[in-house]
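Message: I would value a second opinion on how I read folds in token form. Give me a protein, with the fold worked out from its sequence. Write it directly below this note and I will take it from there.
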Amino acid sequence: VVTLICAKGPRFFRPSLSGARELLSFGGKSSGMAIIWEISNRVPESLLGLISDLSSVGLLSRAMGLVTNVNDLAQRGLLPVVLPHFSKIIRSGEDVTKAYLHLTTIVTGFVWALFGCLISLAEPVTLLLFGERWLGIVLPMQILALQFAAGALIGFQYQLTIVKNVLGRLLISSSIMLLLRIAFIYIGSRYGVVGACLGLLAAVMCAF
């Protein structure tokens, strides 16, 4: 109501299905991506718990949580502005791919340096934050840091595919990658938490 009052133009409108097809198409693809991401995030701990034991799940969860927090610290602030930035470039008629590569180069340099420090200092960081009983997360955390560092190279592909109107292609490729991720984690989980982490690393490398 406030929007209608403050907006310029007619105060009344007639409901219409005009443009519904495009809206539903984009909404369906975007929802599909959200479902894939959610499954992808849940798969590692679920499969490891199914194949291994609860202690391995606890180690993976703690290592994953720490590495994810570091990754969010490095990139989360950029995500809300990347899509508007790319959209502005498209509207101006410039090459958005060049901007994507430039942004990825900058972010990757920062992220790789950050994860390089985490890998080098994994043991003292673990001791400082969690204590000696959690030293079992050191190697899994280092492997996961490599996985997230590699993932930084494709960190903004979702925003790029939206502005280039090829989200359907990303949905298909992400579905294939999810199946590979499940397969690699399933195989790796047979060798414990380290194997599961190596499966995650192998899966992200297949994205290239």
Notes: The mean pLDDT is 88. The two ends are 48 Å apart (CA to CA). The first helix runs from residue 2 to 6. Residues 33 and 172 are 9 Å apart (CA to CA).
